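We modelled the chain as a single entity of 220 amino acids. Its sequence is:
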Amino acid sequence: MKITYYLEVLSSWCTWVEPTWDALKARYAGRAEFEWKIALMNPGDFPVSREQCDWFYRRSGGTVMGSPFMLNSGWFEASRKGVYHAPNLVAEAGRDFGFSGDELRRAIAHAAVREGKKVGDMTVAVAVAAKAGRLNPKKLRAAAESAAVLARVQASTQEFFAHQISQRPAFIITDAIGDKAVFSGLVRPEPLIATIDSMLSDTAAYAAHAAHHKPYGVSP
């Protein structure tokens, strides 16, 4: 089984779903393959002001999630007009240095939505990630600004949209018997766990049948 998590580093909902991501990895360790991919948000998906961003944060963190803290909108910059590729490119570039896990992207997200750092600036995003991963900032920046990393981010973003979804976080769950489940915008673990358990049960049943019966049409 494979579970692919599509995210945008600056998405507040991706921040809220991280405990669910950790819970899934712990629950299904050894039974599922886990991977995250960048799905860039369109410029129009971002707030147009800090005030609007704070309104979103009060809704998602306070009303929906009941969080004891509010996210920090200090990362917002009106001059960027909704273009915040840098934190995502730096997170993706981390793979080139052995960081395919959650460490670097979470460090960048924390710096933005908890500390209010303007990670839309490549210099800031690189500094945060380099410190978190003890990496050479110049080499990390070169990778983040490379055509290869941009191509990977563009490709994973197109994969996201190819699933006919628009909300992040998104989870694509596939199994060995060809089943696929798509979740877009959900952050709580219960529906994901129920679906994964069901898919694992079906896969096990197929395996049990195959162990006791020859393929249809094969002579005994």
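As a brief sanity check on the tokenised model: The chain has one domain: 2-212. The domain at 2-212 is CATH 3.40.30.10 (Glutaredoxin).
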